[in-house]
Amino acid sequence: QLQLVESGGGLAQPGGSLTLSCAASGFPLEHFAIGWFHQAPGKERERVSCLTNSGNTEAYADSVKGRFKATRDNAKSTAYLQMNDLKPEDTGVYYCAAVWGLCRTYEYDYWGQGTQVTVSS
Q1: pLDDT, tens only, 58-112
Q2: What stretch of H or E contains 7?
Q3: Residue 59: which residues within 8 A CB-CB, separation 6 or more?
């Protein structure tokens, strides 16, 4: 059973940066695609990015293109989401999720508990 734990959330000012981490345990991460999701208050969860098991990046959501970058270090069983030029609308809970092989839109088998990001001055 793959387990995922996010960390790195917190309070950031508009224009600031945060890096989220997603630490995996229980199974080698290299077999899984890793998706990052954002759930803003009162809204549905949205996929913001995904990395295939080989590290290829799927298209980012338009809302984060050019600002967010997803990476992974399979040796450390950890995925990252570097978030730059943060905007108030980036506020919400961020989740990482994993699915065997290739990226999917929402059909992921394993989810982390989420980490809160608040962007405010």
Answers
A1: 778 899 999 999 999 999 999 999 999 999 999 999 999 999 988 998 899 999 9
A2: strand 3-7
A3: none
Gap between the Cα atoms of 77 and 100, Å rounded: 14
Give the helix/strand (H/E) hosting 78: strand 78-83
Confidence of residue 28 (pLDDT cuts 50, 70, 90): confident
Confidence at residue 102, expressed as pLDDT on a 0 to 100 scale: 87
C-alpha–C-alpha distance, residues 96 and 120, integer Å: 23
**How buried is 88 (Cβ within 10 angstroms: 0-12 exposed, 13-18 middle, 19+ buried)?**
exposed
